[in-house]
Amino acid sequence: MMKNEPAAKSPELSVVVPVYKEEPNIRPFLSRMENVLDSMGTPYEVLFCLDPSPDRTEEVILEEINRNPNIKLLVFSRRFGQPAATMAGVLTCTGQSCVVIDVDLQDPPELIVEMYAKLREGYGVVFARRRSRKGETLLKRVVSKLGYYAINKLSDVHIPRDTGDFRIMTRRVIEELRGLRECHGFLRGLVAYVGFSQAFVEYDRDERAHGRGNYNRFTGSLKIGLNGLISFGGRPLQLMSLAGLILSGCSFLLGAWYVLQKLIGVELTPGLSTTVLVVTFFSGVQLLSLGVMGEYVGRIYDEVRRRPMYIVDRKVNL
Fold first, then answer.
1. CA distances from 269 to 249, 263, 311 (A)
2. What are the beta bridge partners of residue 314?
3. Which CATH superfamily is domain 13-233+308-316 in?
């Protein structure tokens, strides 16, 4: 399909791109992406999902839509965040298969050719797994590794390590995701939950093409990890219950030790500092337990209110 050819009514491949303050990255991304899609000869659409930005991101996308009718745009009523923007694109796209990719070119568009070929072998999902991660700090890599370890140990679904949202999925998987009416759209966990046969391809992640990331900063990564940990199982609650049981046993033994010293006439061990230490430790555990319970209760509250994950302000070329 040529770039200036009218967009097909039912594209074979949809490319979903969440964006926020990415003005300098739009055109370099489209230049590489269009070359890849044109070489595949597959009817396509590129769907930008835009959290309202203070820069010219929207204007640049609109200019590109005038050049290529296969480019489309969703604009939200306010900033809802990357997980919501991504889910909006996945649930709005019309292709028989859907790729989710960031605009910063850390994930190479050229890998889509291999992922699409793998999908056509009969898989429901093909995700990209990182061999290396350029441009990321040591702290972020450590947090990511620990986060995946914790999620896979404490949740009911297995999320492959060293993966992000960069993946391709079939229309069947998209429609199953549509039935999961959850307010916290953690795509990696939701795709793992729906199952189906899944495969991966490996790649080396590049540095950002321009600027700094506006979605996946340190706090954003922690929030995404917490969503994955809390939203897919109750084991953190079970872990807190086990910790409470163990600590209660320890406190009983400590009390028994002091009683025994008193009964046998041994001078009591000076306990002021020990008491302060024990009380502080127990208080910390109690606050941690309340915090974990609060996360679960907060998510129940969100689900009961049934507020939408996102609100679309306008659609362009859709």
1. 20, 13, 64
2. 75
3. Spore Coat Polysaccharide Biosynthesis Protein SpsA; Chain A (3.90.550.10)
CA distance 203 to 206: 9
- Three-state secondary-structure class, residue 56: coil
User: At a CB cut-off of 8 Å and minimum separation 6, what does 315 contact?
Assistant: 72, 73, 74, 75
Name the phi and psi angles at 296, rounded to 5: -65, -45
Would the CA dihedral through 245, 250, 256, 262 be positive or negative? negative
Instruction: Enumerate the domain spans of the chain.
Output: 13-233+308-316, 235-305
- Which candidate, 32, 35, 44, places its Cα nearest to that of 5? 44
Q: Which residues contact 158 (CB under 8 A, 6 or more apart)?
A: 152, 192
How far is CA 207 from each of CA 107, 133, 135, 212, rounded to the nearest angstrom? 9, 8, 5, 10
In what order do the strands lie in the sheet containing 312-316? 198-205, 125-133, 163-170, 97-100, 13-19, 44-50, 71-76, 312-316
Q: Which two tokens stand for residue 37?
A: 């899609």
Lowest mean pLDDT segment, chosen from 7-11, 18-22, 182-186: 7-11
For the stretch 129-179, pLDDT in tens is: 887 666 565 666 665 666 666 655 656 666 667 777 888 999 998 988 887
Who contacts 74 (Cβ-Cβ below 8 Å, separation ≥6)?
47, 48, 49, 50, 85, 88, 89, 92, 312, 315, 316, 318
CA dihedral 45, 213, 206, 219 (to 10 degrees): -110
Q: What percent of the chain has pLDDT over 70?
A: 56
Q: What angle do CA 198, 200, 206 make, to 5 degrees?
A: 145
Task: Please give the pLDDT value at position 17.
Answer: 94
Q: What's the pLDDT band for 264 if we cut at 50, 70, 90?
A: confident
